[in-house]
Each structure stands twice: as C-alpha cells, then as structure tokens.
Design brief:
Blueprint lengths: L2 E4 L4 E4 L2 E3 L6 E10 L2 H7 L9 E2 L4 E8 L11 E4 L9 H4 L17 E3 L2 E5 L9 E5 L3 E3 L6 H4 L5 H13 L6 E5 L3 H13 L3 E6 L4 H8 L3 E4 L5 H8 L17 E6 L4 H9 L1 E9 L13 H5 L4 E4 L7 H13 L9 E6 L3 H9 L5 E5 L2
Bound molecules: nicotinamide-adenine-dinucleotide (NAD) and zinc ion (2 copies).
C-alpha cells in the first residue's frame, strides 16, 4: 500500500508498505485525510529524533476497516478521528483525567508496518500518512458521518492541541488577554480557543506579515509582525498597563495575561515571557530541538506571579474533547473548513511542505484517492 516513509535521510512517497492485521484490542483504519503538522517536518529535519524507517503523519481521520476480537467501541464503517494518545486507561494519570501524562502514551514506539519487507515504526502511535493504519481501540474516536473527514482530520492534532491549551491547560477566563506567537496550524487554534473562552484582546504574532488576515479571521483582535522589531515590546504597547485609580499614573508594565509559544524556538519563548503583564503566564507548546534552554529573569517571575507552563496535546482527553470540537464546529463556533487552505494527494507531500515553509497555508491536508 501507499504511504510516506522517513528513511533516516528523506521522506519518500512509497507503495512498498504493509500494515499488520489488528490485534485483539486494536482497530484498522482506512485513512481518508491527514493534516500536515510541523511535528512531521521536525522528524524529517531532526528536531524530533525518531528511529527510521518510520511512517509519518499523526493528524488523521478515516473509516474503520477492521476491529480486533475484543473491540467494542467502534465497528467497521464508523468514521473516526485518530487520537495520538495510546494511553493505558488504568494508571494514575489516566484515572485522574490526564491521559497526556500517561507514561505509556509517550515513546511507546512499535512496528505495525513493514517497508520493503522490513519492520517500520509508527509515528506518534498514529502514522496516518498511509492508506491504512492500525491503532489502539482507545485512539479511534467515533464522529458523525456527516462531518467532512478532510476537515475532521485536523482535530487529531492541531485543533486538540491549540484549543485544548487554552481551555484545558491555561483555563483562560472571559476578559483575559493573550498573545499567540506563531499563527500556523496550532496557533490559529489557540486563537480560536481564546475567542471561544471570551478573551478580550488576542494578539497574533508571526514573522509572515500575510498571516494577519488569517489571524483576524480566527479571532485575533490585533497583529504584530515579528520580523519588524521587538515583538514583546509591541505586544506590551498594544495591551497597556492599568492606571493608578488615585494618581492616574500608569503602572510600570503592560502586557498580556497569557502568551502561547506555537513556534518552538527558545528566542520565541523568551519573547512570550517578555510580553507578560504581572500575573501573566507563558505556555510552551512549540517543540524546539532536544536540549534547547531559555534564560529567564527569575525576579521578573518571583516578584509578580509570572509563570511558565509546558503543554502536550492540549491536555486533551480525546473521548471528551473530540466530540466537543465536533459540537463546536457543528454549532458554528469552531472553524475547521477554513483551516484547510490546501488539499493535495499524498504524492504532492513535497509541495505541501514547501507551502508550509513559505507561510502560505493554515493547514495542508493530504488525501488518499
Ligand atoms: N506540544 C504539543 O503537543 C504540540 C502539538 C502539535 C505541534 N507542536 C509544535 O508546535 C509548533 C507549531 O506547529 P504548527 O503545525 O502550528 O507549525 P506551522 O508550520 O503550521 O506554523 C508555524 C508558524 O510559526 C511562524 N513562525 C516561525 N518563526 C517565527 C518567529 N520567530 N516568530 C513568530 N512566528 C514564527 C511561521 O511563519 C508559521 O506561521 C511546532 O514546533 C510543532 O512541533 C506541539
Ligand atoms: Zn502535531
Ligand atoms: Zn495510563
């Protein structure tokens, strides 16, 4: 069957793949559509080290083709979004509603595929850049058949991560303010998560000035072109400090309550921290190369309650959050169709990568016809 394999040197579109039959608790899915997330590109450029050969793709939706003997929650023909968390369901993290912290859900690579007859790894327990993939039952989350799979696939990573970072991790409240560094597939979902949460000022920040229109479409109230000077300073100027009630004097700093790094570069995370008001918190979502560090002025945190949080996969609980995203979409509050600005067959993977690097897409989607 066809798919995209990273062989340790380059990403290849191949038809030399096979996938195993589902085990008792596994589900085989015919992939219909898959979004290209920056994390796939990060495997190719070495930012995310991964053993080759590996079948890429982790943001997908499709139709259940076959189920193992013990599977009860889905059946052949069901439409599903693939969640990347192969969580165990029984550990303390899973039992307390934190499957993103399940030890079994990270680094549990297996080889359900063969590439040219040799074992090939799955990426993010998903590998949706293949005509068929095999996942754990817990990862196949049923959705209504009338939701277009070319839009639904994006829920599998970018939407859960971005909206979840706002609603589950930060728990942003109405009236709070935010800056979103990186207006890509993840950042746009942070922006619409902030809109849904009732944030009043939402500043999109990107080095590509043309992202302003998309940022505003998804809910940004302001935009800062990060290629034109100190982005943090301009965010603080846009969200100025309160005035002292008695004297009318400005407080010493302005800035936002929340700043989300959706790029994955230490300098961007530092900029996010520098854009915070007193009591503000930066959220690290972007994934830099392993070992990357950021320097922080500890006094700037300790004196005035600033903070820094990391966030994996929007702290998602997929069986709650995927149906929630579908509800928000069907009631017109979550933009999904508008995220898909490029749809191409699997064979045009290279073109989608080029368009992403050029900053010309919200999300590119691969199809399998
Ligand atoms: N923590 C998680 O669970 C998780 C999940 C998904 C993706 N990610 C990571 O999130 C990051 C973003 O992924 P994506 O798919 O949205 O990427 P993307 O390529 O769609 O978007 C990245 C955006 O950042 C912009 N950008 C680049 N450098 C910038 C800078 N210095 N300042 C401001 N903007 C800049 C680009 O122009 C682009 O618009 C990646 O590092 C990815 O690996 C993390
Ligand atoms: Zn992703
Ligand atoms: Zn667990």
């Amino acid at each position: 069957m066809r798919g995209i394999v990273f062989d340790g040197h380059e990403a290849l579109v191949t038809d030399a793949l096979e996938v195993q039959d589902p085990g008792p608790k596994e589900v085989q899915i015919r992939t219909v559509a898959a979004g290209v997330c920056h994390s796939d590109l990060s495997v190719i450029d070495g930012t995310i080290p991964f053993p080759p050969p590996v079948v890429l793709g982790h943001e997908g939706a499709g139709v259940v083709e076959a189920v193992g003997s013990e599977v009860r929650s889905v059946k052949p023909g069901d439409h599903v979004v693939v969640a990347t968390l192969a969580s165990c369901g029984t550990c303390r993290a899973c039992s307390t509603g934190h499957p993103t912290r399940c030890r079994r859900s990270l680094g549990n690579v297996s080889t359900p595929f063969t590439y040219e007859g040799r074992p090939a790894y799955n990426f993010a327990a998903a590998s949706v850049f293949a005509e068929r993939t095999v996942v754990q039952e817990v990862q196949a989350v049923r959705i209504p058949a009338d939701v277009p799979l070319t839009s639904a696939c994006l829920i599998g990573c970018g939407v859960l991560t971005g909206v979840g970072a706002v609603l589950n991790r930060a728990r942003v409240r109405p009236g709070e303010t935010a800056a979103v560094f990186g207006v890509g597939g993840v950042g746009l979902n942070v922006i619409q998560g902030l809109r849904i949460a009732g944030a009043t000022r939402i500043v999109g920040v990107d080095t590509v000035a043309a992202k302003e229109e998309l940022a505003r479409q998804f809910g940004a109230t302001d935009f800062v072109d990060a290629s034109a000077g100190d982005a943090a300073e301009r965010v603080r100027a846009l969200v100025p400090p309160d005035r002292d009630r008695a004297s009318g004097a400005l407080a010493p700093t302005g800035g936002v309550t929340w700043a989300f790094d959706c790029v994955g570069h230490p300098a961007v995370l530092r900029s996010a921290l520098d854009s915070l008001d007193w009591g503000g918190t930066a959220v690290a979502i972007g994934i830099p190369p392993r070992g990357a560090e950021v320097a922080v002025d500890v006094n700037a945190l300790a004196y005035v309650d600033r903070g820094l949080l990391g966030n994996r996969y929007g702290s998602a609980r997929p069986h709650h959050d995927i149906p929630l995203m579908v509800d928000l979409y069907q009631t017109g509050r979550l933009l999904l169709d508008e995220l898909v600005t490029l749809t191409r067959p699997l064979t045009a993977f290279g073109e989608v990568i080029d368009e992403m690097h050029a900053g010309r897409v919200a999300r590119g989607v691969l199809t399998f016809d």
